[in-house]
User: What shape does this take?
Amino acid sequence: MSTVNREIHLASRPTGWPTAENFRLVETPVPTPGPGQIVVRNRFVSVDPYMRGRMNDVRSYVPPFQLDAPLDGGAVGEVVASEADGFTPGDVVLHGLGWREYALLDATAARTVDPDLAPLTAYLSVLGMTGLTAYAGLLEVAGMAEGETVFVSAAAGSVGSLVGQIAKLKGAGRVVGSAGSAAKVDRLRELGFDAAFDYHDGPVGDSLRAAAPDGIDVYFDNVGGDHLEAAISSMRLHGRAAICGMIAQYNDTEPPAAPRNLAQVIGKRLTLRGFLVGDHGHLRERFVGEMAGWLRDGSLSYDETIVDGLDNAPEAFLGLLRGENLGKMLVRV
Amino acid sequence: MSTVNREIHLASRPTGWPTAENFRLVETPVPTPGPGQIVVRNRFVSVDPYMRGRMNDVRSYVPPFQLDAPLDGGAVGEVVASEADGFTPGDVVLHGLGWREYALLDATAARTVDPDLAPLTAYLSVLGMTGLTAYAGLLEVAGMAEGETVFVSAAAGSVGSLVGQIAKLKGAGRVVGSAGSAAKVDRLRELGFDAAFDYHDGPVGDSLRAAAPDGIDVYFDNVGGDHLEAAISSMRLHGRAAICGMIAQYNDTEPPAAPRNLAQVIGKRLTLRGFLVGDHGHLRERFVGEMAGWLRDGSLSYDETIVDGLDNAPEAFLGLLRGENLGKMLVRV
Assistant: This one.
């Protein structure tokens, strides 16, 4: 076992788009567990859009990242040292201290997973927070019913691609996705989306009307901005938006242009509802059961974009913000 | 009985703020009822902000008003001729053909009310659509719970003043209202609001933070724009907005500036929900029972601004848009 640990620190807070200079690779000693603690050698760490918000020094639902300290986020790895009951070296665990090779954590903050049941990466994507976000947002927050038309933005991303597939598996009448390239649009069609468009090809409102001429009932929002405005315009009576993210504006330095058609929520009796996956843990058992079944019988696919090397984690994160990933963006440590 | 009927027609569609020239007083013969029909001599007609939207030639939840035809809207009056079972001259009825002296309508579109139980005007305000809008929006759409902090805009208006009082009667911890003049703010304090402010006195966000330093749980929106933005910023986790109207932008000719802080719905798990009172008729019986009780025991007050003469109905409507009313704006025919 190496005695040198490597971590990615936040070197400075980005203004607008982050750059490589906002991050710093730092070497530290591999930690030693105290009572009740474990040390985990991370194998895969997750980079996610919400992390951009935590790079700003503003109070939010999660505290901001601290300067000159390691970033954190979802990770899966092997226990290499344990002073905690129930954990022995070799155990594979899921936890929240990514962006580093070796993580020291209280054992209560780790959950053992079975590496024979699914690939390690699945615990960070389809069977993890990503999957539950898609499942809970679509079915609980938006309350999708059979026969409804669903629109999801960033549809080739980790959450969006699952939203569309779960919608079809749950009986949606029509599923439409938007994405940022022709290749992604092709992939959405392979995944069973009824229609998909590249949002660069014209005004989102026009593309959405063409893809769903009879309107939409549910919008799963990962993008905000013009996508949300288009969704509101296309919504039928009693439409619902589950608002998961607004990646279009995470790097804005000015307050973003919000939907100019918000008044339509009245006449059409629309509901816009923001959510965080953490509020929907009660669905986990049902979620894992259904998802595992769909994975087994081949009715659900998931994409991963894996970047090698912890030193490339900042670049992986920047690529995610630029939309360079297909499905879940992960770093192999 | 006069043989001349007078009606207010839409002479032209307003662009931006309506003017007197958009309306025309037209004399027509008093109609004669056909089978199943009645003729009603209107006593009071309602003018409401939503009517502004119907003056535009756009499809909405109600069809637009037609040019060179009478406007319509809530009205109460006496039956003067009837060819319908169950209706005799002298009956007092509530119906939807206001903006005219004599209304010809199918008896199925009229509802008999008891003039001894409440003043005629109450059927257009506190015991009518206005009251149900306040009641349903606060209790069903926003789901206000005991102890919560409630903010309502246009709080001295017909709906807003009831929202605030119902909130207090239902156990809200703190009720805050905004209005457009010092006199209205004084009136809100008399009505039992815990805090009230004139939105002209500074940025709405600052005034709201001062009035509700610990934040708000429920926002009843009659205004939109900067009021909605302020409410989103002040909302606590799991806050809910019942969106009833956006009077601030009804006369806008450009798409309005929408809340620039909409992304907060995610982290704070907010719900924004538009509604129309027509979807909440199932609450009517409970609503009338509770409201009548509160009126009897003096725990609920309502204000009316009554303009005399049908020829002044356009001016009453324009005054409503300018915020010149305290409580419900009505025209005595």
Observations:
- Chain A has two domains: 4-125+302-332, 129-278.
- Chain A has a mean pLDDT of 95.
- Chain A touches chain B at residues 53, 60-61, 224, 228, 237, 243-246, 249, 255-276, 279 (CB under 8 Å).
- The longest strand of chain A covers residues 37-46.
